[in-house]
Amino acid sequence: MELIDQKTKKVMQECRVRAAEAGLKIEGETLEYIATNQDMLELRPKGMIPTLYDFWVDDLEVLGNKWVYKAYPHNAYETVVNTHPPISFYNDNNPDWLNIMIFYHVLGHIDFFQNSVFFRNTWGMDFCGEALADKRLIERIREEKGAEKRWVDYVVEFARGVDNLVGYYRELGEDDRVQAEGLLGSFSEKVNFYFGDFLRYRYEEKTVTLKLYHEELERLNRCLKEFGDKQGEMAFFEDSFLKSRFPEFNSAFKKVRDKNKNKKSKSTDLFQYLTEHSRFINEEENKWMKDVLDVVRRTSLHFQPHFRTHNCNEGWASLWHERLYIADSRISSHEVGFARVNSGVVVDPKIGFNPYIGFKRLYEFLEELADKGKLSRDYQLIKDIKERERFDRRPEEGFGRKVLFEARNNFDDAMLVNFLSDEDFQDFMDRYNLFNVGRRYNPDENVIEHYIKSRSGKEYRKMMNDRLYHPPCILVNEEKADNKNELFLEHVFEGRTLVTRYVPAALEGLSYLWGDVVCLETTEFEWDPEDKNRKLFDPEHEVEYRKVHVLYTTDGTTTEREELEEEE
């Protein structure tokens, strides 16, 4: 790999200026590298992070990629890494005109990284630098283990088997709390309790009014201004008004404070629970495992927003590389080449789904709705198809563009797919002539044929939702454990079953990290083996499922599956 030359860098800086004029917000410098096909093959297993820690499974994937490449030479035009500064790699086979188009695409990605709220925990983070420090840490642990260094890789492997269970949204919630404290100021536990649970409960019971709440806030501010933070808070609670109006306050606060003291800190995910509560990991000779688990956890947390916004991100980048490059004078004499490459990126498959064009169209449709005032309540109440088509009450100039960027800021894949009403989504289907494709067995020709199964917006949206990243929600349930040495996990069933063939291996790895028995309660669907055979030849065959609760139990060497009960 090597940095792009200064001539190309100047061209890309001009692209940044055009992107900024269009409304994209990109802060700081960017780094661009020219990468060979060999570089791409070696970086792909590491998520294109050159400094990511070494792991033997990645080496196997590199070998597999090379074998596949020999049979079918292919590689991405580019890859961009969400770090600070952002790093992008360009295939050395790309002609100069193509790199301009690709850089517009990359700028769309960087704009998404730096403005989507789902990436806010990564804003300003030099992840490549952190990854390098983590890599050196794991290498040092390997060296310290000497002949037993293989156990480091075992711990990495066991941890990566469940690294989709990190508490990503809880981390975002904690970030909200910290930001709120920064905006509103940091108050004591007593003040938070008084203006939180204490007054809220009495307001809900209608024993106090909202006016009293505001008056008390003003009184607190006067006390803090007059006496300072510490003495002001004391004067506020020693006031005769509060003592006479709420004589029970001090005893209520004492009960809550004592309860909080006895309450164990709640782990945000399975990784933290293992680190805090595993007796095996907390033994002196095993404490190095905490560092390894922490590295795997933080790496997973960094990639989680990528997984949850992958489709939005690609749709956003595709939208802007098309708009910006078509308006760029440097497209001159390369129109045919652009059309060929772009049609391969935003190809509209009638069978299957391409997020590049599917989510690009969702953005464009949302912008159009906003420009015509169709996001208003008046429009949503209209049911007549012709009247919906004629509706055009344009709000202020640029409102559609504003809504477009707000969608980029605040929507992940699931939110963008499900934002539109059923009527609007059906209009989206009709606009682009979308449909669901089914498969059925043709006994006359003895073939499986494809056909248009449905043009329903509800069915198409369900298909899109089914394709989205949706990691399972698995919680620790201490009450169901037979004893304090057992780790009992409960899968919160959300309509999707776990991939059962991976359950034993994942549980046995967890059992090693826990140091004792691990149980997992989940929900599965069973169906007759004969139905499986019929389904192969007739995809439209209706299968009768049986929904059951299942308990997996492992001691680290063997895993038993027990059916608990059947649900109707």
What are the defining features of this structure?
4-stranded mixed sheet; alpha+beta; 5-stranded mixed sheet
Q: What features would you describe in this structure?
A:
By secondary structure, the chain is α+β, with helices and mostly antiparallel strands. The protein has 5 domains: 2-116 and 309-340, no CATH class; 131-167 and 268-304, no CATH class; 172-262, no CATH class; 347-466, no CATH class; 473-567, no CATH class. The protein contains 25 helices and 11 strands. It has helices at 6-22, 37-43, 56-71, 96-115, 127-145, 150-160, 168-184, 189-204, 210-227, 229-237, 240-245, 249-262, 270-277, 288-308, 310-326, 335-345, 355-371, 377-380, 385-390, 399-410, 413-419, 422-431, 457-466, 503-514, 529-537; strands spanning 2-3, 31-35, 78-81, 87-91, 436-442, 447-454, 473-476, 487-492, 518-527, 545-554, 559-567. Strands 7-8-9-10-11 form a 5-stranded mixed beta sheet, with helices on one face. It has a 4-stranded mixed beta sheet with strand order 1-2-4-3. Strands 5-6 form a two-stranded antiparallel sheet. Residues 180-185 have low confidence and may be disordered.
Radius of gyration: 29 Å
Distance between the termini: 59 Å
Sheet with most strands: 5 strands, mixed
Mean pLDDT across every amino acid position: 87
Query: Can you give the helix content as a percent range?
Result: 55-70%
Shape: globular
Q: Report the total helices.
A: 25
Please mark out the parts with pLDDT under 50 across 5 or more consecutive residues, or reply none.
180-185
Strand content: 5-15%
Order of strands, main sheet, comes to 7-8-9-10-11
Q: How many β-strand runs?
A: 11
What is the total number of structural domains?
A: 5
Estimated structural class: alpha+beta
